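## retry 2 of 3
previous attempt timed out at serialization; input unchanged, resubmitting
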Amino acid sequence: MDMPPSRAGTLALVGADLALDFCNTASGRGGPEAREHLQAARHVVDWATHAGVLTDQSRAAVLDRLDEIAPELLAQATTTRDCIHRCGMALAAGRQPDPADLDLLGRLHAANLASARLAPQDGGYGWAWSPADGPIQAILGPIVLSALLLLTRKDLTRVKECPGHHCGWLFFDTTKNKTRRWCEMSVCGNRAKQTRHVQRRRQAAQPQ
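## retry succeeded, writing output
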């Protein structure tokens, strides 16, 4: 069966965190309406450009080598994404991530750092990647770093899973009182409201 077209380059970035947005390149996991948007290596590049991981210049540099790195890029991207997603789902359920996934994240970060350099960043220094030093690491390095910063420096009770029908996207709740429920109120929130409205009308129409 053919998969729906990828929307990797246009997906809503609603996770309030780079790593969580990367998790959201798939939705409805395990259900009848599951969507996979990283169907090819080109889609990984499209998403990374859309999310600001790659500039237009670095995108061009990665595309110049895409035929060479495509299978490895797609495999590493999905492995990285699914590891972060498992950690995020555990946190959203109030559980600790599997130690094996935490170890994997550490190993992925260490591998990515081999192609990184310290560069000026926000008045200080931070890790930076260049496609010239490693095109795959230039995409996945910042994403794994984002996941590690989330795990080590943020309030993990703010990691949530959208309860929308066949959604399951993850997001970091930045509201003052942790009241955010939906990935997008205009999408999943409105769908839920419409469903409740239809149910109430059906109940009202039933004979008493």
